[in-house]
What we know:
Elements: E1 3-5, E2 19-22, E3 33-37, E4 40-44, H1 46-58, E5 64-65, H2 67-70, H3 76-92, E6 95-98, H4 105-118, H5 125-128, H6 144-150, E7 154-155
Parallel strand pairs: 1-3, 2-5, 2-6, 6-7
Antiparallel strand pairs: 3-4
Helix pairs in contact: 3-6
Amino acid sequence: xxxxxxxxxxxxxxxxxxxxxxxxxxxxxxxxxxxxxxxxxxxxxxxxxxxxxxxxxxxxxxxxxxxxxxxxxxxxxxxxxxxxxxxxxxxxxxxxxxxxxxxxxxxxxxxxxxxxxxxxxxxxxxxxxxxxxxxxxxxxxxxxxxxxxxxxxxxx
Length: 156
């Protein structure tokens, strides 16, 4: 079941709006899903495939910057140049979409806690026990803090 998209090239100073995805690649040696961009098949990891399906189900047609797709990982000079631009890419994004992984009962609970906080409500200590986000691989990525701190608006 392939995911389909169209890609386009924009510069960091281009006024086009886009979202940036903050996620964990997963095992890059296991790229079992197809992403078809402008007719070109790109093999992607299960975690990225799941993230794209979820994001585009809620926001179809949104322009999305994804490092594993937007950076030619086989071209080292290009990859190094793009990594140097990551701060600008995440800072300029309209939204940074944080993909923690597929939902579990614990992540659903975490989302309920976040909704309470966002609404200005008070939390009980029990609501904060065993924070699921700390168990997710996403929270241990090197770029996570930077991606969130640079976001003008983040969506989990």
